[in-house]
Design brief:
71 residues, mainly alpha, rod-shaped, transmembrane, transmembrane helix, membrane
Amino acid sequence: MTCCDKHIAHVEHFERLDKRVGDLEERDFEKTQLIARMDAILSQLQRLYWAIVTSCAAALVTALFAVITSR
């Protein structure tokens, strides 16, 4: 293998590595976007949870008040 062939082989190898790094960076970006979406969904679910808990507590207090005042 001549010096020129070795150089070409190294250049091709670095091009493949560069492409692989680009693919990994793209995947990392997609994972970051997915995590951000999951975080937004979790935040919405948390707000919904507290809305349900608050509604149930209000209904319970109302029912208790109705029972106490009806006696």
